[in-house]
Amino acid sequence: MGFTVAIDGPAAAGKGTIGRAVAERFGFAHLDTGLLYRAVGRRMLAGEPPIAAAQGLTPEDLAEPDALRTAVIAEAASKVAVIPEVRAALLDFQRAFARRSGGAVLDGRDIGTVICPEAEVKLFVTASAEVRAARRCKELQEAGYPTDYATVLADVRGRDARDADRATAPMLAAEDALVLDTSEMRVDEAVAAAFAAVRAKRPA
């Protein structure tokens, strides 16, 4: 019997960290759905039309997730994510993953509202743009990518606007989602809140 944890929120809010922690703690499978769009974005940057790239996506496209986490690919991902046909092409994959036996955690932008509206647990993880930009800038610099805070902040704000304003599946918290603002929360505090939300809904 499936048990789905849907985690939504903007970039660098901490939803991936929380998602991985929940999956490990409860033995669920984990899918960072943003990687799907990043993989499509990378194929588009290589010259492939975005809809064809989404329709032809393979597991091999996700084999090296760290290579998909550059700022250039993130920008491409947010652009292909506004294309309805791209989102439709990736919909069935995500829904099948969500209801797999043993439970699943999915994090993204529209999991609790569009992909898995019937998810047993829904979280919306957010933080201020300034805090998220600082986190992402540090992450990129430590990975060896040359960037600066002002550039990353502009990218974060631009991506937020595209995610929130797109006509298809805009990013927003589901009405029944637990909102976690991690601007001033420690990682362990946010993870503990997520664990508590899962325990409250998970069958004994």
Count of domains:
1
How many helices? 9
CATH topology heading: Rossmann fold
Order of helices and strands: EHEHHHHEHEHHEH
Poorly predicted sequence stretches spanning 5 or more consecutive residues? none
Protein structure class: alpha/beta
Q: Can you identify the CATH class?
A: Alpha Beta
Cα-to-Cα separation, first versus last residue: 13 Å
Mean pLDDT, nearest integer?
Answer: 92
Using only C-alpha atoms, the radius of gyration works out to 16 Å
What is the assigned CATH homologous superfamily? P-loop containing nucleotide triphosphate hydrolases
- Order of strands, main sheet, comes to 2-3-1-4-5
How many distinct beta strands? Answer: 5
Main beta sheet: 5 strands, parallel
Q: Estimate the global geometry from the Cα principal axes.
A: globular
Q: Name the helicity range.
A: 40-55%
Report strand %.
5-15%
Could you say what the CATH architecture is?
3-Layer(aba) Sandwich
Protein architecture, described:
With 204 residues, this protein is α/β, with parallel strands linked by helices. The protein has one domain (4-198): P-loop containing nucleotide triphosphate hydrolases (Rossmann fold, 3-Layer(aba) Sandwich). It contains nine helices and five strands, in the order βαβααααβαβααβα. Strands 2-3-1-4-5 form a five-stranded parallel beta sheet, with helices on both faces. α1 (15-26) packs across α9 (187-201), α2 (34-45) packs across α4 and α4 runs parallel beside α8.
What's the topology here?
Elements: E1 4-8, H1 15-26, E2 29-32, H2 34-45, H3 50-55, H4 71-80, H5 84-98, E3 104-108, H6 111-115, E4 121-126, H7 129-142, H8 149-165, E5 178-181, H9 187-201
Parallel strand pairs: 1-3, 1-4, 2-3, 4-5
